[in-house]
Every structure is written in structure tokens, then in C-alpha cells.
């Protein structure tokens, strides 16, 4: 029987369909998760490794002599050394479809929260401060504003629909421009990267993290945005130079921001923590039970599919499949 190691507790209902077909090693709900060191010491005996909030680096891949597939709990997989895995012929699985709706919802929520100052007002009311001026430009009306989406994939498209529901106009940039019929279907306008920065009242980031995108948003990038604009990131933290963002917010280069991802999670730049024009959430964009169960099932379907000799759609390096 093929053996699969899972780095963190998952609900029994996700494992039950494979009963009698695969053997799972999972930490108890009380223990919650295996440490990297614990997983490293165990992984050598397993055919599959399912990673939740852990690393799949070259060291652990080299240790796992019997490993035939490795999976990540998320659409991103930069915590796995997938290039090295590809080099040694190890398939890498992700969860590309099940995060879409929940992540798009959270991004849309952060867009509104940033533009309408929700977190700031919540903090003030709790502190006994009541600021309700008749006339103020501290916040921005969402209806009629222009949203710039950077990365027009599954999540970017769903954010587009939700933003249009609020009455926003949508422009976008993607390295691979959508077909004219797709642009017409979604009612969006394509612009080059710098033009999106120049014209958007709010930027919503949905690009993958690849080396070329490291610190794509930096001091110079923020200067290209409107001083009245907002920046929202539900993609990957390392795309943004956090110190440059903090400086841009402090110096009113841009008006506000909302972040669900950070450069060095769970650590957050201290300057961001002290600003009242940024809304922060702890990388929970996909945190609904419906989405998380779907992600678990999608990852397990990919792992077990590879182990059964199939070619699952969610293998990110299909060239490794024989």
C-alpha cells in the first residue's frame, strides 16, 4: 500500500475516500502539525508528501528517496523547490481551482475596507474616538472608481466581477493578454503595466511569485501610482518591498493599502504595524471551510492520481510524468 505523509492535521472526511487504498500519516488534531525536522526524519519512507505550512526544499527532496510526488496546500508553490523537483523528475501538485472564489472575495473585501477606512474606524470606535465629520476626503467612494488588476487569471477575473458589482471600472495588465472575446466578456480594458499604475484608483495584485517579480513593487513603482490610490495584495508577499510600501504610505505617495500576504511571514514590517492607512490580515484569503476542504481534496486527488499512474491536471511540472 502506498504511503502518504501529511505535514498538518486535515479533517478525516478528506481521507476517508482513500481508506484501504492508501496509508496516511497525519499529526493528531491536538499536535496539529509536524515540524520541518519531524517531517525530514520521516519523509524517506513515503511515496507522497502533502505539505501544509511547511517547506519542500532541496534538502527534504534529497532525503525522500522513495518520494514519487509532493504537493502544496495552495495555488502557489514557491515553498517547494519545484525547479529542483523537476530536475530530479519529481511531480509537484498544487490546488489551482479551489482557492479562487474565497480569495477573490477577500481581495474585494480588502479593496472596500481600504478605500472606506473600515479598519481605522473600527480601531477608533473601540478606543472611544468618534470621528464623523460632515465633509472629509479621508476615504474614497468605491462606485465609479477605477480598479487596476495585475494578473488576470482565475482569481483576477473573479475580482473583476465583484468589483464591477460595486460599480467600479476595471482595467488590467497580464503578461499574457486575454483574447479580445474574453476582454469583451468581462468588460475590461487592457493597458501596459505602467499605464495601469497611472490610471487606477486602486491596484489589486494577483500575479504569481517568480524571481522576475521579486520586489516588482518598490519605491519607484509606488511613485507611478496616483497619490490618491490604494494598493491591495492577496498574491505573494515577496512581490512587494514592504519597507518601500511603508514609506510610500507614511509619506503619502499613495493613500492607503490592504495586505493579506507579507515578505517574511509571520513577521510583518514594524512600520506597517504603526500605520492607520493600511489594513492587515494574516494570509487568510482562502480561509473558509468550503475552500479549505476543496483544497485538501484537490491536493489529495493530485497526489493519489500520480501514485496510480495517472496525469492529474494540477501537476505543475507535467514533464516529470512518465
From TrEMBL:
Record keywords, A-Z: Amino-acid biosynthesis, NAD, Oxidoreductase
One Pfam annotation reads: 2-Hacid_dh
Matching entries from PROSITE patterns are given as: D_2_HYDROXYACID_DH_1, D_2_HYDROXYACID_DH_3
D-isomer specific 2-hydroxyacid dehydrogenase catalytic domain residues: 4-317
What are the residue boundaries of the D-isomer specific 2-hydroxyacid dehydrogenase NAD-binding domain, all occurrences included?
109-285
List the SUPFAM superfamilies hit by this protein, alphabetically.
Formate/glycerate dehydrogenase catalytic domain-like (SSF52283), NAD(P)-binding Rossmann-fold domains (SSF51735)
| Any single GO BP term | amino acid biosynthetic process
Show the InterPro entries listed in the entry: D-2-hydroxyacid_DH, D-isomer_2_OHA_DH_cat_dom, D-isomer_DH_CS, D-isomer_DH_CS1, D-isomer_DH_NAD-bd, NAD(P)-bd_dom_sf
Q: Does the keyword Oxidoreductase apply?
A: yes
Which domain of life, per UniProt? Answer: Bacteria
Its Gene Ontology molecular function terms? NAD binding; oxidoreductase activity, acting on the CH-OH group of donors, NAD or NADP as acceptor
Recorded family membership: Belongs to the D-isomer specific 2-hydroxyacid dehydrogenase family.
Query: How is this protein named in the record?
Result: 3-phosphoglycerate dehydrogenase
